[in-house]
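Appendix B. Raw example, untouched.
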Amino acid sequence: VMPVKGQVIFEFTPVGAYVKVAAIHVDSGIEVTIVGDPSRTQAALEQTAMKKLEMVMSRHDKGDRRGGLVV
């Protein structure tokens, strides 16, 4: 898995007893979300979301479009 190049925006949304974190790659529009424990640090949640974004973008680069839709 290659590191993501370019700008990534993180969005945090509290939902009940957890927090939903979206990571959006600005250049490609690819977005992933994770659900995490709100007691974890912002950096830890961003790191987890970034790892998922790296995995999804790596699959996307290989032609694997499963698990989502680029709009």
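End of appendix B.
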